[in-house]
Description:
Blueprint: E1 6-7, H1 16-35, E2 39-41, H2 42-51, H3 74-77, H4 79-93, E3 100-104, H5 110-121, E4 129-132, H6 136-149, E5 157-159, E6 167-174, E7 183-188, E8 191-200, E9 203-210, H7 213-226, E10 234-238, H8 242-252, E11 253-265, H9 267-270, E12 280-284, E13 287-289, E14 300-303, E15 305-306, H10 307-316, E16 320-326, H11 327-334, H12 336-339, H13 348-362, E17 371-378
Parallel strand pairs: 1-13, 3-4, 3-6, 4-5, 6-11, 11-15
Antiparallel strand pairs: 2-8, 7-8, 7-10, 8-9, 11-17, 12-13, 12-14, 16-17
Bound molecules: S-adenosylmethionine.
Amino acid sequence: MQPERHTGFDLPAPDEQSAAHSRRVAEYICQRIKEQGGSISFAEFMQHALYAPGLGYYVSGTTKFGRDGDFITAPEISPLFGKVLARQAAAILEQVDDGQIFELGAGSGVLAATILRKLSTLNALPDRYYILEVSADLRQRQSEYLSTEVPDLAARVEWLPDFPVDFSGVIVANEVADALPVERFTKDGSLLKQIRVAVENGEFQWHQDDAPDLLGKAVDGIEKKIGRQFPGNYQSEICLALTPWISQLVNCLREGLIFLFDFGVTCREYYAPDRSEGWIRCHFRHHAHSNPLILPGIQDLTAWVDFSALADAAVDSGAEIAGYVSQAHFLMNGGLQEELADFTSLAVAEQLELSRQTKLLTLPGEMGENFKCIGLSRGDIAPPLAFRDSDRTHKL
Ligand SMILES: C[S@@+](CC[C@H](N)C(=O)[O-])C[C@H]1O[C@@H](n2cnc3c(N)ncnc32)[C@H](O)[C@@H]1O
């Protein structure tokens, strides 16, 4: 996701309604902190701030995506993203019997609409397009959006309460892994501490405590993987929810390919010595910053993804890595040029708009390099064109 305009701490003040909502979320989290004896892990804090029933950022009825929200994602920036992805999906659907599409965390529904429309023009429509969305509010919005934007195709869309069983086809998730709650830790020599959240003088504050065994084992595992110990006073994050999530995803797939897009890096980059303040990124009204303890429930909280951990979890669950490429390479390998074939016949204003969208999606300083796509396959599946060049699987 991209803030459209700003980075830094010059945050705008929330309007009165949002501020009141945030106070309610803060009260809810304070209560959980009290119940747990004075502090909660950061992963719990993130879980509540994003998903507390009726209150959390993703489940309350506010606008999140696009210009009037807090951030903009690739499918919201341009239909080019979904069209290129649909081309890859068509190549996979061709290879499996009775293949369908399954999208996780469908946001506003724009990606589903773009993929369905493009597959229809490619004559490659699946019977069903399944969506698993944790937010009831977003499920409702997705349904309304699809009925309006692709009325002839919307009947193919079905919302699932859980992962499907024995699924064949294509699985898609754009910016879902970065919304999974992460643990924060600090390590100084052999001393590992869990970074938790407490309340002091009516405000959320960081608090350190002994790390639970599970976190200790996971941090040992990272040091083994990168082949060195962290430098002194090192702080970072780890997503303990990632392995079970990936394992569920891989296990529900009988045959086909999973496309996961997110901003992220390899394990060595994630835990580089100079990256000692971690990877949390917050978005509020198109301002990006790194303080997750403010504006609870009305700002988005994300953490970059450790793609090596994701790949390890996938392989351990029985998937193969079909490719790991930057978003720019995914799009350029996958047919972006073909999607722009009629560019010169367009009106100048349309050309300018398409150029703007293409730059946002592909330039290294925008989403082109920080965003990656990893493909995870099961069964005898030939990787699609998007992974043809500049594959970085060997770096994971
Ligand atoms: C950053 S938004 C991305 C939305 C959309 N994919 C896009 O690219 O515009 C994250 C989405 O994932 C959903 N989500 C978060 N955790 C999820 C989970 N465990 N399973 C399914 N959806 C989830 C959120 O409700 C939201 O729709």
